[in-house]
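Box 3.1 A note on notation
Throughout this textbook, protein chains are presented in two layers. The first layer is the amino acid sequence; the second is a token string describing backbone geometry. Keep the layers aligned when reading.
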Amino acid sequence: MFHRSDTPLETSWSPLLQNLGLDAQDVMRRAGLSQDLWTRGNTRISTRDHVKFWRALEQAVDAPALPLRLAEAIPTGSFSPPLFAALCSPNLTVAADRLASYKRLHAPVLLNLTETHEALRLSLRWSHTEGAVPESWAGAELAFLVRLARFATRECIVPTLVTAPQGLHPEAEYRDFFGVTPSLGSAYALEFHATDATRPFCATDETLWQGFEPVLRRRLGGLDHKASTRDRVRAILLEALPSGQSGMDLVARRLSTSKRTLQRKLAEEGTTYQRMLSETRAALARHYLGRTELSCTEISFLLGFEDPNSFFRAYHTWTGQTPVAHRQQLGPSG
């Protein structure tokens, strides 16, 4: 039984740990957590277990600059609803506001924004925690926000202020990463000059965001009882497809229903599972082609196609163009 304070253990951790050269199962063993958490689906853990996970990461890596390594290893091409929402934003201020709304999809971390004419302040606090938050966790959150600003603007954005209650160590490495020396403060926080906070993100696509935002809101609400079957299916596919999963049996299992019942409910709402799958794949394909440097073969795999040719045929059906031609039309990736 889950408590309301429990939050998901993101499946995106698995490839991230691989990028760091770590064995995911070894990290879970060190944390005293079940080694199959990532394969169960809808896995939620307590804040205490999140802390144990971060402590285990510290032991496995044994490097003071772990947060910076994590920030650099984050695969921005991988689909994560909060990250996707942020990259669809016109600038850092809007991205941070959207991340604040969806932050609890990742962990029990609250992101607070304070905006003035001169600056944007982003401060972090943790809910349902006992004792100090691991410095690695806090440092990684700060480093991610800075990397997001740099990745999305293609500029080396430097925050005007970085604070931490106990400082960040090793200080020299954090100074090199942030471009400013972290100072002591009452909270883990960043400040950006207003010019940088409103600097345009590259290849902003508000139309694409508008198509996904309602789904993310429903997912954020835990797919409540008022959500339609169509909304539930789309929300699950958005999360499942990047890992190469597209079978109706997976979706039915996540919804705790049978395939036949799922088909019937979708029919009552005027759609089919195959139509839902195609619509979701088409939207994700546009995201990958326009905002990442993933090859068409990699995109095909992430969308759950068995071979690239099937993806090419499907994409031509959706758009009347080949993926390569459409990518050129969309412009530089990112």
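Residues 7-197 form a domain with the H-NOX domain fold (CATH 3.90.1520). The chain has 18 helices and seven strands.
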